[in-house]
Specification:
The protein is an alpha+beta fold. The protein folds into two domains: 38 residues; 129 residues, Ctag/Cox11 (Pfam 04442) (Sandwich). Helix content is 20%, strand content 34%. The protein is built from one helix and ten strands, in the order αββββββββββ. A five-stranded mixed sheet has the order 1-7-9-5-3. A five-stranded mixed sheet has the order 4-2-10-6-8, with no helix packed on it. It is elongated and about 50 Å long.
């Protein structure tokens, strides 16, 4: 008689499938975790190096006197769809000595008949100049809430780092463009009430 086949050969296969599935799950989990970790690392890298046109944040003016070399700085403005604002620089281009602190203004007008909120992002071009464009004061990455018809001036205080002049790759650089884009904020962060201001949302007690 021919012996009946047994199921013993299936057991190792099921064990291998379980191991393979476990390894695949672990790899996926590691990839997802790495992608989340990459976001803050990328932001830090851009701010530290000026990569992708990310400007630097300065706390004070440069220690040395401005250089004789000058460079043109152009100012660009954009508004994303869904935000009924008029947004433009007061001047479109100025020539500045490298190392001199400069203040310019953008104007924003809420053209809606209601209160709206926006937030601005920025970059500079050429992208490699971000490491040398130092901003002391700026309205970017801060929610701006505008009443109906309100018009507001927003300052930008900056300087071009004198280290730019020592960068051989930028010897022929004549113009830098600073560009801002305002995006709508659908759910703005509520402002905290002052200690002396009654909380009207709670109603009368």
């Amino acid at each position: 008689m021919t012996p009946e086949p047994t199921n013993c050969s299936k057991t190792p296969r099921l064990g291998r499938d379980t191991v393979v599935a476990s390894i695949c799950g672990l790899v996926v989990a590691l990839m997802v975790g790495a992608s989340y970790a990459a976001v803050p690392f990328y932001n830090w890298f851009c701010r530290a190096t000026g990569f992708n046109g990310t400007t630097q944040v300065a706390t004070s003016s440069p220690d040395s006197a401005p250089l004789q070399r000058k460079i043109a700085v152009r100012f660009d403005s954009n508004v994303s769809g869904g935000l009924p604002w008029k947004f433009e620089p007061e001047v479109t281009e100025i020539e500045v000595p490298i190392g001199k602190v400069i203040t310019v203004f953008y104007t924003v007008t809420n053209q809606a008949a209601r209160t709206t909120t926006g937030i601005a992002a920025y970059n500079v071009a050429p992208l490699t100049v971000g490491a040398y464009f130092q901003k002391i004061n700026c309205f970017c990455f801060t929610e701006q809430t505008m009443a109906a018809g309100e018009k507001r001036e927003m300052p930008v205080v900056f300087y071009v780092d004198p280290a730019l002049a020592a960068d051989a790759e930028n010897n022929g650089l004549n113009t830098i463009t600073l560009s801002y884009t305002f995006y709508p904020v659908q759910n703005p962060t509520p402002k905290p009430l002052a200690s002396t201001e009654p909380d009207k949302r709670k109603g009368s007690l």
